[in-house]
Amino acid sequence: MIYCMSDIHGDYEKYRRMLEAIPLREEDTLYILGDVVDRGPEPVPILLDMMQRPNVRPVLGNHEYMAVLCLRALVKKITEETISEFSAETVRDLWNWQQEGGQTTLEGFRRLDAARRKAVLEYLLEFELYEEVTVNGNRYLLAHAGPENFSENRPLWDYGLHEWIWTRLDYTKRYYKDRFLVTGHTPVACIPGNTQKDSIFRANGHIAIDCGCGSGGTLGAICLDTGETFYVR
Ligand SMILES: [Mn+2]
User: Angle at CA 10, nearest 5°, toward 8 and 14?
Assistant: First the structure.
């Protein structure tokens, strides 16, 4: 079975309960479509758990991108004497990240020993920009937010990193004739015209799975084989 979830945002407790609800077997694959980190209290324990599971396939979110930028700079500087050596660009990245809820990720990271810090950073660098799967003859494109500057004939490899992780898709519009788009990033409550505020949104070739966990709301997941949905509220 193929499962998707997204935008866990540091809620380790909901993540753990979701893995009991599904439940994930060895032969299943769980795609996690980004924004594992930031905001909630325990993002790093989620990453450490994901790293132990070969059948969890992570896709990059904008929050992982911000975290990687900053954590790399911090790890590099940790042996040097003064923070004043940060470039203006790094200071701006750090400021932006902290505004977006990066504090809990930073704190969790600081509690790790050097070897685990290195392992977590390397793991974050492995996150894919998108994934394609075919289930029961249906094609699915999985991404955190994208694709931006969309054209149906544009090959997927042509989209750059920023075109996958920040986009606000138009959920009233069908993008591909021949595949479904599975995305997080935009909470379902923010989809115009959607009346289901904390359930997975399925319409117009979209499956939008961010049910609001990032603001203390529901964590949702979907099984692509059966269409069954799972919720931890
Ligand atoms: Mn996002």
Answer: 60
